[in-house]
């Protein structure tokens, strides 16, 4: 696993492996426990395949009661647990640990209820993102968040990472489309947060869980918002001679008060890779391509298309094609959706980064990435959600060449540092996982991080859930609660203490 440092394996747990496997088989009988090395290899990595590690054992529960009993057993016996959905995490969020149970939720794959009057669907976490839309599209509804991996990624994983997609600019991330969850705590307790109602009283624990990356609990049911499809949707495919001009066009469109259904950008390497793969009709003589989708009533869409085209021309656009049919609109998007696998055809390996910046900083950051590309001698293909500044640079490398992975990791870290420097953040939708874990101090100081760890302590006092992820260093909960004494004096000495 290259130079990545993970928590030291607990030798006592490794020595009790046979006992642990036997106990888990009693909870999840049949084929629900996988402990043979070759069979566990399918679970040794998530989509960040540069890092691999076999788990202690793999458990695939089918009922909430089984999840509860597994977590309760692990809590009582001090066994670590790594939750996993479909394994499409791009940040190493589901990377197994040698001394941890890998709790795979893929068997929770049923849609439990579709409530069209209330515009919600209740699903299990193993249901795919696209599966929700397929289940409701016959009534003219759909589920708005649509990450590029939507054909495979699970809704539980979407909740864990707060996934977005090409339409999150207008319709929001997972956090904006989840109304309620059922979850199991590490001690086995089953709780519900939110529901079909629009909002909940008290603390926003639902918001806390969305994006918590498996550190606080295991989601077993999700209530999501479904939307009616807009009357019409059309897309523009706009080419620019430079990425800076395309980036300025993005900023100008938003500044004009236009909120597209989606606004995506690709640079020359990504354009050529996607076109060779999908044959979407992308122009090959441009440095940057914008795909802008407008949706709503026909009259409104026609008006907005004219406005966007005028803004694009003002920013130096050399080509502008407007979709004339639903089939053509879907072809425009097909190349963008397939950009990641397409880049895999032009490079043996790549790291898919994920950072978010203020839109106005797009030209500056794109120029900075070009400089970093020259510094490290590695190519980069840019595919990103331009409308909300969520970048996905793809760093191309060959793992068979010594040191190239290390160079790619350093290149990626510098890109993320650049994002933070211009006022952005380390992640937009992929999460922190292990990929960005050691960069957290670039964005948060010790006080910030300790406060976040206190939240984890409230849910998981033994740090058994997904350890080694998100936080560069986990302090024991007891250490965080200590009274700080400086030069023999306690803080606020005038306060009575009992």
Can you lay out the helices and strands and say which pair or pack?
Layout: H1 11-15, H2 17-27, E1 33-34, H3 37-40, E2 57-59, H4 64-76, E3 80-84, E4 100-104, E5 111-115, E6 120-123, H5 129-136, E7 141-142, H6 155-161, H7 168-171, E8 178-184, E9 190-194, H8 205-209, E10 218-225, E11 227-228, E12 232-240, H9 243-255, E13 262-267, H10 268-278, E14 288-296, H11 298-314, E15 319-322, H12 326-337, H13 339-343, E16 349-352, E17 355-356, H14 362-376, E18 380-385, E19 390-391, E20 393-397, H15 404-421, H16 440-443, H17 446-459, H18 477-480
Characterize the biggest β-sheet: 7 strands, antiparallel
Per DSSP, the total helix count is 18
- Main CATH class of the largest domain: Alpha Beta
Radius of gyration: 24 Å
Provide the spatial order of strands within the biggest beta sheet. 15-12-14-13-18-20-16
Query: Which architecture name of the largest domain does CATH use?
Result: 3-Layer(aba) Sandwich
CATH superfamily of the largest domain: FAD-linked oxidases, C-terminal domain
Count of distinct structural domains: 4
Low-confidence stretches: none
C-alpha geometry:
globular
Task: Give the rounded overall mean pLDDT.
Answer: 92
Q: What portion of residues belong to β-strands?
A: 15-25%
The amount of helix comes to 25-40%
Total number of beta strands:
20
- CATH topology of the largest domain, by name, is Vanillyl-alcohol Oxidase, Chain A, domain 3
**Overall SS class:** alpha+beta
- The separation of the N and C termini measures 50 Å
